[in-house]
Amino acid sequence: MLAEDASFTVTHVHPMRTLDGITLPHVLRFLRFVTLPGKKKMAARIHGGAGAGAATALSTFNPKKLVAPSRTNLPAARSSKRCIVAAAGSDASKSLRVGHSQKLIANAAVATKAETSATTGTGHELLLFEALQEGLEEEMDRDPRVCVMGEDVGHYGGSYKVTKGLADKFGDLRVLDTPICENAFTGMGIGAAMTGLRPVIEGMNMGFLLLAFNQISNNCGMLHYTSGGQFTIPVVIRGPGGVGRQLGAEHSQRLESYFQSIPGIQMVACSTPYNAKGLMKAAIRSENPVILFEHVLLYNLKEKIPDEEYICNLEEAEMVRPGEHITILTYSRMRYHVMQAAKTLVNKGYDPEVIDIRSLKPFDLYTIGNSVKKTHRVLIVEECMRTGGIGASLTAAINENFHDYLDAPVMCLSSQDVPTPYAGTLEEWTVVQPAQIVTAVEQLCQ
Amino acid sequence: YLPHWNWNCLTTDSQSEKSAVWIMALSRLSSRSNIISRPLSAAFRRSISTDTTPITIETSLPFTAHLCDPPSRSVESSTQELLSFFRTMALMRRMEIAADSLYKAKLIRGFCHLYDGQEAVAIGMEAAITKKDAIITAYRDHCIFLGRGGSLYEVFAELMGRQDGCSRGKGGSMHFYKKDSSFYGGHGIVGAQVPLGCGIAFAQKYSKEEAVTFAMYGDGAANQGQLFEALNISALWDLPSILVCENNHYGMGTAEWRAAKSPSYYKRGDYVPGLKVDGMDAFAVKQACKFAKEHALKNGPIILEMDTYRYHGHSMSDPGSTYRTRDEISGVRQERDPIERIKKLVLSHDLATEKELKDMEKEIRKEVDDAIAKAKDCPMPEPSELFTNVYVKGFGTESFGADRKEVKAALP
């Protein structure tokens, strides 16, 4: 571990200042004392490592300490005098890959995904947003009650092209361009669903749906219950969320943590073209309100999907990579960071089991439980904030249900509890990077 | 303190309400010969259900219109309708008073918002529409539920949280629904039902049903932004939605002049036509709703403002006298009470005697008491009902616990 080099200890940089005080040149200044080969490689490593280091200094994760990380945030970090960097290992070339490949996560993920593709025989290749469109179009063909409403979904074709071409095919009454009034058009979708229509409501960005929270919570989630079962609300509320490429704080929100307590709704997160199409179709056919979380950065993932019709189960988790040593639970974009880290871990001799939980509410505790019983160690990697995120609930669920099977405390890597900054480097530090995942697995598997 | 609105501003032609009633009564006396046919035998007068002799009734006040031509003040009605108005309104009144006593006896808990004083709106609306037209309202929904065909037993069972209530005891006072009569509730958060109502209107247009939706709200909720959002969409897409503002002049404890810069709720639609109606006159309400339905099916949304009044406070926890005087309440009760108005009409048309009406009221009282007794006997919901109807069972929707059994609420 690089941090063990005494020459590399950055003792007088206060960990709390790392996020606002640290800059790349700031760290690089200390590098002239480092005797490792190749400044250039070192720069790359620091780039990747500084991200890991700054983030880990602020999070409770500190591999130098043998105690289990507490759930409190800064106090644990404050006592750490070391700015831990480059946790990716001593091999410079590998860490180079970690450093540079952060920008290429999507492509690397495509390469990973092709190996574990879920297709059999012939299929057709398409991008994730096209898969969503295909699922939507097939359902609209199948059931005349399905309609789409949202901002710019019609003539414009959708801000992420998910509804492209649908307005021309199905007309203005089935693909509705709404004015900018999330509260009202979400309410209207729910009202229409009470009569039997099946609207697919798009939030142009998930964050905008905060304006419709009242409708989603009180009317969407609760009407089936408060009417004693008279009304069903078969809506699908979908949209892109998550941290993108420097979109700013308000356009980088993760609403799954806010919606998870609402009774009566189901939440799913898609991560590949295969499960995007399958979940979209399943969500439309479901009689319950389903919130489908897409991710802004995953729309251009390419994959071959089957030609024949298929549906994914809404409450099932997906086994991405079976393994023996540790269970890594993740969803959406973090799946690709995890798979990236898995490559590194495999090279180091670990055998992680990666599960894409897909169903955020309710959790598929069956699949998760079987995995925990096998591996006895759990790492949750999510993009939600540490406080009150999906990982927080999942940690509680696993601890409550599978406590006896655990050999180590459940560790949860989440995004920092900060508004997502605009600056690219800062933005990288707010989300979990593969290097941190590798370090966490190493710590858990000690 | 008194709100600065008074009786005069309720009438647009500056007649006081009192004189309007007298003028109407006098005009009835002088134009008895205008009645198309009078019941000939005493037998016809007694029964409600058989006599369909048409009667024309003048509304007490003319309509005030915004961006449309107001309908005429002469309303077509019949003997049968007149008597049934009386009966149903008396039933509604009795039901609400009984709910008051039940609340004080702690059999009804939580929030209980009573509709007495506003019955004319529910009755007049029902008379103008069919069961295919949808109604959605906020939490003051007991009488509208009754008007839509709900039974007294279902009402009281739901209010007392019993399993035979219309929402199986899980909704309560604010969540009455009746799907088969297109009554969509029953909503606790005011204002949120209006976008829902416009969504229902959208679905009616989508399915080409030739029906309309009445989305009701109060003067308090009229200031919610989502109303204007929904109105904008309804006007853009030509939806058959009718927004009905039941203006009882108080949003809980806040008088309308303290909450709204513009008290003309029927004009608030700006580009959407509106009609102001005397909400204490069931026939005016009926005429306005009929007019609105025709308008909405052809031209898109319209706003109706029903000028009405509630005798009780906002809810049972509100005495109703801290923000208005008792004189005001009793004044309205004396001069504008909807049931009294119908009673006078019935008596002046010789459709029944005082004694018969009193007997009818006694019958109603007994009916209500029987329903309450029956509802009191109804058991509470089973504990397993806690978890039913959270999700709909169907396509892949089981919630799994750790061992694949039915999930309990403790597990996420």
UniProtKB/TrEMBL annotation, chain A:
CDD domains: TPP_PYR_E1-PDHc-beta_like. It is an enzyme of class 1 (oxidoreductase). Its EC number is 1.2.4.1. InterPro entries: THDP-binding, Transketo_C/PFOR_II, Transketolase-like_Pyr-bd, Transketolase_C. It holds the Pfam family Transketolase_C. It catalyses: N(6)-[(R)-lipoyl]-L-lysyl-[protein] + pyruvate + H(+) = N(6)-[(R)-S(8)-acetyldihydrolipoyl]-L-lysyl-[protein] + CO2. Keywords: Oxidoreductase, Pyruvate, Thiamine pyrophosphate. Residues 126-301 form the Transketolase-like pyrimidine-binding domain. Its cofactor is thiamine diphosphate. The pyruvate dehydrogenase complex catalyzes the overall conversion of pyruvate to acetyl-CoA and CO(2). It contains multiple copies of three enzymatic components: pyruvate dehydrogenase (E1), dihydrolipoamide acetyltransferase (E2) and lipoamide dehydrogenase (E3). PANTHER family: PYRUVATE DEHYDROGENASE E1 COMPONENT BETA SUBUNIT, PYRUVATE DEHYDROGENASE E1 COMPONENT SUBUNIT BETA. This is pyruvate dehydrogenase (acetyl-transferring). It comes from Brassica napus (Rape).
UniProtKB/TrEMBL annotation, chain B:
InterPro entries: DH_E1 (IPR001017), PDH_E1_Alpha_Subunit (IPR050642), Pyrv_DH_E1_asu_subgrp-y (IPR017597), THDP-binding (IPR029061). The keyword Oxidoreductase applies. It is an enzyme of class 1 (oxidoreductase). Its cofactor is thiamine diphosphate. It catalyses: N(6)-[(R)-lipoyl]-L-lysyl-[protein] + pyruvate + H(+) = N(6)-[(R)-S(8)-acetyldihydrolipoyl]-L-lysyl-[protein] + CO2. SUPFAM superfamilies: Thiamin diphosphate-binding fold (THDP-binding) (SSF52518). Its EC number is 1.2.4.1. Residues 88-383 form the Dehydrogenase E1 component domain. The pyruvate dehydrogenase complex catalyzes the overall conversion of pyruvate to acetyl-CoA and CO(2). It contains multiple copies of three enzymatic components: pyruvate dehydrogenase (E1), dihydrolipoamide acetyltransferase (E2) and lipoamide dehydrogenase (E3). Tetramer of 2 alpha and 2 beta subunits. This is Pyruvate dehydrogenase E1 component subunit alpha. It comes from Brassica napus.
